[in-house]
Amino acid sequence: MTGADALYDVPGPRTRQRHFAYGVLSTAVLLALVGWVLYLLFDTGQFTYTKWMPFGYQGIQELLLRGLGNTLKAFALAAVLSLALGGLLATGRLSDHRPVRWLATLLVEFFRAMPVLVMIFFIFVALKVQPLPALVAGLTLYNGSVLAEVFRSGVNAVERGQHEAAFALGMRKSQVMAHVLVPQAVRAMLPAIISQLVVALKDTSLGFLITYEEFLHAGKLIASNLDYDLPFIPVVMVISPIYIGMCMLLSWFAGWVSRREQRSPKTEAVAVATAGPGAPLPGGEPPTAPRP
User: Fold this and answer.
1) Are the C-beta atoms of residues 108 and 149 closer than 8 Å to each other?
2) pLDDT per position as a tens digit, 223-245
3) Which pLDDT score, from 0 to 100, does residue 24 have?
4) Which residues, 6+ apart, have CB-to-CB distance to 61 below 8 Å?
5) What's residue 287's pLDDT?
6) Which end of the chain has less neighbouring CB within 10 Å, N or C?
7) Is residue 54 within 8 Å of 232, Cβ to Cβ?
């Protein structure tokens, strides 16, 4: 029995046949669903030349590229600021000083409970902030508070003996966090961090509600100026794969970083030579025990 099947029974012939039948049935259902969607798209004429011809115009292509660039700019700013805010709030929540810990907890719980769209609208309308700073600020406050909990949970998940041993060596708390706990917690936190960054990337589409000219806003502007029925469907068919591709690229980058971290010389095991006989003492043979 290997480690992969140590926690459950190995499926027998009938169980394997049943699992195979489930897989075939699920595949058939998914293919039927995709076929039904494609039939509806062809039946309503969504693949006709007239509906796809506008995307060949240079002006529309430039509008989409400009919107995509604005989306990436907002995401880059929100991602960097969210990571910084999350680290700051997590440090406050892990502080030994009770007032600092209470204040950080209050901020985390408040911004995490507030809908991100409400925060964006409040900053844009009530504080009269420009669209890009309002969008970035709302995304930063929400995602930063969520990442703060991710960081705190990751640090607390490290085995307790690690920081006890570090304190026993005379290290300060800042040294323990920087050199012992955080490097070990990063691997466990990386999937959750990337997942939250994907959420931030998708939430940049909320910028079109405050007139920020991001990717979705560009698609809405194009669809509103087309003069045929159901103009939004071709636009969505162009925009959606790009959003999905960006999220998949971000997930691939996280996997690449994780694999690279595992191959890092700092984390690889160091080969230890096999112990051999010791060198003889000066002046002759090694001492032997006296005979009884």
Assistant:
1) yes
2) 888 777 777 888 888 898 998 89
3) 94
4) 55
5) 54
6) C
7) no
